[in-house]
Input
Amino acid sequence: MKFITVDTYEKLSRQAANIISAQVILKPDSVLGLATGSSL
Output
């Protein structure tokens, strides 16, 4: 696991976007799984 430390939420958001976009460019059939629903 790789940890990335940033100073601001804006930098965090940009870094996350860069990681996701790079993954999609390298592997276009990637699947993004997002947790949804209730925990009750």
